[in-house]
Design brief:
Strand order of the largest sheet: 1-2
Largest sheet: 2 strands, antiparallel
Number of strands: 2
Helix content: 40-55%
Number of helices: 4
Order of helices and strands: HEEHHH
Structural class: mainly alpha
Length: 147
């Protein structure tokens, strides 16, 4: 018995002790430090994710291998074009309404006409009304476009 227990002690001594390394170290402004260690459940989940990959590329035949890489290149290219296209549109000013200058000119002329009318009548200047969706043009009127 003493031999068995002695051998066990030697084996325990020879195995390197598992040193727990913190998963994350948080430094606070007041100088305190908090160390977060991972749990065994998290380590098991990480190991499962590493071993449960969808498929092994080295075991694929040439056809599926080429299809995999063609799809991956296409999806990456599309994502990059989407990102760069949005950036270029903002840089070139293509994210603004196409005919906004026409609308601005229309509102400016309407404001001038309202100002002239209010000056001619001798009444106080009233703020111009900005048209909205609730103000519809009368059908058959000259503003509507029919004669």
């Amino acid at each position: 018995m003493e031999k068995d227990s002695f051998q066990q002690l030697e084996l325990e001594k020879s195995e390197p002790p598992k040193k727990a390394t913190p998963q994350r170290i948080i430094h606070f402004a007041d100088g305190d430090i908090m160390e977060e260690y991972s749990t065994e459940e998290e380590e098991e989940e990480d190991a499962e994710q590493r071993t449960n990959s969808p498929f092994d590329l080295s075991k694929l035949a040439w056809g599926p291998y080429l299809w995999y890489w063609a799809g991956r290149i296409a999806s990456t290219s599309f994502s990059m074009c989407e990102l760069l296209g949005g950036r270029f549109a903002v840089f070139l000013g293509l994210d603004q309404p196409k005919y906004q200058y026409v609308l601005n000119e229309y509102h400016r002329t309407q404001n001038k006409e309202n100002d002239k009318e209010s000056k001619g009548n001798g009444s106080k200047a009233q703020p111009s009304k900005v048209p909205n969706e609730k103000c519809h043009l009368e059908t058959g009127g000259p503003e509507y476009g029919t004669r």
